[in-house]
Design goal:
The complex is a heterodimer of chains A (116) and B (112). Chain A has 116 residues and is an all-beta fold. Chain A contains no helices and eleven strands. In chain A, a hairpin with a 6-residue loop joins β7 and β8. In chain A, 34% of the residues are buried. Chain B has strands at 4-5, 10-14, 19-25, 32-38, 45-51, 56-59, 62-67, 72-77, 86-93, 101-102, 106-111. In chain B, the strands form two sheets. In chain B, strands 2, 4, 5, 9, 10 and 11 form a six-stranded mixed beta sheet that branches. In chain B, strands 1-3-8-7-6 form a five-stranded antiparallel beta sheet, with no helix packed on it. The termini of chain B are far apart. The chains are: A mainly beta (116), B mainly beta (112). Chain A binds chain B through residues 4, 6, 31, 33, 35, 41-45, 48, 50, 55-56, 91, 93, 95, 102-110, and chain B through 1, 32, 34, 36, 41-46, 49, 89, 93, 96-105.
Amino acid sequence: EPEVTQTPSHQVTQMGQEVILHCVPISNHLYFYWYRQILGQKVEFLVSFYNNEISEKSEIFDDQFSVERPDGSNFTLKIRSTKLEDSAMYFCASRLDAGALGYEQYFGPGTRLTVT
Amino acid sequence: DQQVKQNSPSLSVQEGRISILNCDYTNSMFDYFLWYKKYPAEGPTFLISISSIKDKNEDGRFTVFLNKSAKHLSLHIVPSQPGDSAVYFCAASAPGDYKLSFGAGTTVTVRA
């Protein structure tokens, strides 16, 4: 069964460093998302991406964040200068633009980002 | 973001009995609702969904009920099994790019 994959599973970085989180969405999906979950808090939407551009972003997704789909399979989230409060689980998700077939998003296993 | 609320942080149920998880929402633009199950150190796994044009959707042991007038949905798991022990998230989305707004989750423990 197709699945969303994410690498690395755990990333430790120092404050101020740049990190790139990698995701491979399900191959025929057209919508891509990043969410994060800070320990003990809700899963929060960060950004959605469709047709090679950002379709929506949250207040969290400021100028320090960027997303890219560099080729036909990868979808990356970059944090330019990490802060302590960026420590969280980051989940990638994808959705098939299938209209009446549903709007389910399928999530990857997550990357645990620890900023020290 | 308090648009989706799960007011019960935990639920303990005996194996074989029914688990009922509740969720309330405030945004009247939401038209699609989903339940996800999450184990520790894993991503959320899609369970079942319902469109706002329906009031019930069933898939095996899982049934979701939607009461639009009350802005309330529930997930019934019958019968509950030990493998159902996990955190269950309610999520909702609105037309557009269908980003998900999540509730805080309910931790279900199924006792043998």
